[in-house]
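We treat protein structure as text, and this decision shapes the records that our systems exchange. Because each token names a local backbone shape, the row as a whole describes the fold. An entry from our holdings is shown next, in its original layout:
>
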Amino acid sequence: MDLARELAARLGVDLEFVIFDAAGRVFEALGSSLWDVAFLAIDPVRAAEMSFTAPYLLIEGTYVVPVGSPLQDIEDFDRAGVRIAVGRGAAYDLFLTRTLKRATLVRADTSAAALDLFLDQRLDAAAGVRQPLMAFAQAHGGLRVIDRSFTSIRQAVAIPNGRESGLRYLEGFIEEMKASGFVAAALARSGQTAALVAPPAGSPR
């Protein structure tokens, strides 16, 4: 939201937030003219129809499991019979769909609904972003979050394909916002201290 406000101020235009309850629904709305600029994780499936800046922050994707679960590390999850709740179309759903060979993904409409599904159906795990999973585990008790992550989610600014001049402007804007400390300050204000500011474009991750 801070980036969106700063972008609108620089462009001298009014800002309207269009709220979606799941990242997959932002992608589904592509072409509907509901939004001009979106804040989404970079993913090859999305990149076929969207253009992305370099990431402005990095977020860990991991799992929450019952305290007594035998699943201890990331490699333990890709086994036959392991059922994992995910939010349909989320970045981690897309990543796990490509990488898991034996485990079963059980999809809910949103990431929040996936956590409810995990509890209601007594699934083996739920996948998601580390910070919400930790808050969920603390709120419900009897749960733990896996220490390691299965992916680093690269959050970026996206626009529909074909808007090359707009993409160039956004690329420069995001690099300035990272270099100036704007992104770091926004993370600190929001309490999202576990997320990391992404390195400059072209730097090794």
